[in-house]
Amino acid sequence: MRLLPFLMGSLLLGAVLPAQAMPAFARAYKQQYGYMPSCNACHTEGGGTALNGFGKAFKEAGKNDATFARIAAADSDGDGAANAAEAQGKANPGDKASTLKQPGNWLDMASLIPKEVQARFPGILTWMPRDAILTPADIATAKSMGATLSAADENTIYVPVKDQHPAGTALIFPVTFQGKTGFLLMTTDRALKITGVSVLHADKLPAAKSSKVYASFNGQQAQTVPAPKGSDLDAAITTAVKNAGVLLYVRLKGA
């Protein structure tokens, strides 16, 4: 299976037609403030990770175009400046370290790729993040493949590029067990064969750090991870990995 060699054309089209590639939040943010934000506007460590203060405020206030006005006067990151003022000044309203006087590099391409993702692909200098927006057809296809996805699973696929060709993928995604959520990182080669699954953040789900199930995914095709048996933590992790793998396949298979 050679899915990713075809990905470059679609990624290049994304550079020409960004409105079709951005997540709903990013599209709304750009319409409101005139520029494309980093995933770090809402997430602590890039797309797929936990929400920061601004992300939580945006979610709790309705997650639509009108939400920006509702949270404009709030100071979600506690740095003394209102959300709207920071956004208009190209500072990150979700990061206390990014201020109007010193906005930092949160909009640079290098800052768009979580450091943990970069560490999985040493030597890679070029990245092409691809936003995975799930259509009803995608969700139906995923269901036929044994995965349960919804529009809420919209995510960012990180694609490392070497010698002008995709070198694999990386995806950050949540795993929930008994009401507690942690975040995992999955990497694949260019044919979507899993090269690693590991814990990214699991402060609220510490047991995930000691699970032995991660090694069992290595070498499997991302879209064919078997459904788990049972209802323990390992089963929850396997379900999360299966859903993430199918998401990768569904979004990249037609590229």
Characteristics:
globular; alpha+beta; single chain; 2 domains; 3-stranded antiparallel beta sheet; 255 residues; 5-stranded antiparallel beta sheet
Secondary structure: elements and pairs:
Layout: H1 7-16, H2 24-33, H3 53-60, H4 67-70, H5 83-88, H6 109-112, H7 115-120, E1 126-127, E2 130-132, H8 136-144, E3 155-158, E4 160-162, E5 165-166, E6 169-177, E7 180-188, E8 194-201, H9 233-252
Antiparallel strand pairs: 1-4, 2-3, 3-6, 4-5, 6-7, 7-8
Can you describe what's shown?
By secondary structure, this protein is an alpha+beta fold. It folds into 2 domains: 18-111, no CATH class; 115-252, no CATH class. It is 30% helix and 16% strand. It contains 9 helices and 8 strands. A 5-stranded antiparallel β-sheet has the order 2-3-6-7-8. Strands 1-4-5 form a 3-stranded antiparallel β-sheet, with no helix packed on it. Strand 6 and strand 7 form a beta hairpin. The two termini are 13 Å apart. 38% of the residues are buried.
Helix and strand content put the structural class at alpha+beta
The low-confidence parts are 8-22
Radius of gyration, Cα only, in angstroms?
18 Å
The chain-level mean pLDDT equals: 86
Number of helices: 9
Shape: globular
List how many beta strands DSSP finds.
8
- Largest sheet descriptor: 5 strands, antiparallel
The total number of structural domains is 2
- Oligomer status: single chain
Helix and strand pattern: HHHHHHHEEHEEEEEEH
Distance between the termini: 13 Å
Short description:
Residues 1-21 form the signal peptide. The chain has 255 residues and is an alpha+beta fold.
